[in-house]
Amino acid sequence: xKEWTESVQRMIDWIETHPDQNKVLENLSDEIGYSxxxxxxxxxxxxxxxxxSYMSGxxxxxxxxxxxxxxxxxxxxxxxxxxxxxxxxxxxxxxQFGCTPAAYRRKPVPIPLQTHKHVLLPDYDEKRIRTMExxxxxxRVEHIPAHKYLGIWEEKADNYCDFxxxxxxxxxxxxxxxxxxMAHPIVTAHTAGWKWIDGKRIYFYGTGxxxxxxxxxxxxxxxxxxxxxxYLVFSYPVFDYMTENVEVMGAVEKLAWNFDxxxxxxxxxxxxxxxxxxxxxxxxxxxxxxxxxxxx
Length: 296
Description:
9 strands, alpha+beta, 2 domains, globular, single chain, Multidrug-efflux Transporter 1 Regulator Bmrr, Chain A
């Protein structure tokens, strides 16, 4: 089973580096070493999508991100991603997202981009050699100014994995990814977290946005105002996701949920502000942020 999953992840990663390819099945077959038919079956079994629909979605998403983030001509972007003409790109863009590429460039709005899939995940039941160094755990203070948060609060979940039992991952992360350019500079896209309600942690997922954000709100999302606050940041630096994720997340959260803020002259401020979660293993590491205010 793991060998099959690794093969599908190789397919996904190959698609990511060959966005302009049209003969996907034939090329993947040569790359992976399975027949085109078997590549299709494996991919569908692992992702729930056909290779054709995933490739089409990723190609359109990559084009949309370049339209949003660069000043390149839309014609050049169309050619770069294998579209036969700008008109073909524009037609697919409008059918998928309800606006033209030019309109999206002028005023980016949340759209459901097909995100880069990851099917090769850590095996949480696998016995492994402990590599995490507890001496690298840290606590510091960070100030986050007032902002808004565009996201989904799920009352039936208190963690990332349970959250996706109630929401479609591709759709939600696609909307959030499309907001990266408009996201708050500190509470960035895909920053998740918890809100305490009646002594219970409620998990949420989305993106921070500036205080003056007045754009559309995707179905199922809410826009909430978050006041300014200091935060205690419990962190572990860059680590290997496949081998260290379980230990790192567990150690950071154990430190965060059991910490006494009075040791640093604070009290928790969680009635006013949410806890935040930053999980970027190979870029930032893992952080849990809990709001605090100075002891009186």
